[in-house]
Amino acid sequence: MTTQDQPAVSPPADTSLANRYGSKKQPLPRAVKRGIAVAALAAGVGFMAWVSTSSAVSDVTFKDIGFSTIDATAAEVDFQVTREPGTAVKCAVKALDSKFAVVGWKVVDIPPGEADGTADGGRTVSQRVTLRTESLSVSGVVDDCWIPGAGT
């Protein structure tokens, strides 16, 4: 039998698969797995702390109720503020013209209220603010409300 008559010998299947797809991956060491778990746990605890403290600090909400234009130099904005009784609040109120440009702006001090016999215990107070305007306004809204000195 000559060398030309011999059938070609193929390499074993394990070797050809390793050449094609690479060798088997080594599993992560136990210390690396433990480090990943500790980092994920620390990140989760940090996120929960941030969520709980950020919601406690921003305990002021507001709602626009109404708006009226007195004339080209004045407007009134009606709104409600909800906060803990005994907490002073500041609110920025603005008047806008037909192109949404600010034509009037005022920061309003809302003094601390006391708990009363209302359904929400005195948390919600209604306010009416008169703004001086540069030109005729077509809208008035509360821009933001905050607790002075709360770091926000």
Structure report:
With 152 residues, the chain is of the alpha+beta class. Helices cover 24% and strands 36% of the residues. It is built from two helices and six strands. The protein has helices spanning 13-21, 30-57; strands spanning 61-71, 74-82, 89-96, 102-110, 124-132, 139-146. The strands form two sheets. Strands 1-2-5 form a three-stranded antiparallel beta sheet, with no helix packed on it. The protein has a three-stranded antiparallel beta sheet with strand order 4-3-6, with no helix packed on it. Strand 1 (61-71) and strand 2 form a beta hairpin. The chain is elongated. The N and C termini lie far apart (92 Å). The model has no long low-confidence stretch (mean pLDDT 84).
In short:
Helix content is 24%, strand content 36%.
Note the main attributes of this structure.
152 residues; alpha+beta; three-stranded antiparallel sheet; 6 strands; 36% strand
Question: On the 0-100 scale, what is the average pLDDT?
Answer: 84
Shape: elongated
Helix content: 10-25%
The largest sheet, given as strand count, sense and whether it forms a barrel, is:
3 strands, antiparallel
Give the terminus-to-terminus CA distance: 92 Å
Number of strands: 6
Helix/strand structural class: alpha+beta
Strand residues, percent:
35-45%
The helix-strand sequence is HHEEEEEE
Helical segment count: 2
Biggest sheet, spatial arrangement of strands? 1-2-5
Weakly predicted, low-confidence segments: none
The radius of gyration over CA amounts to 34 Å
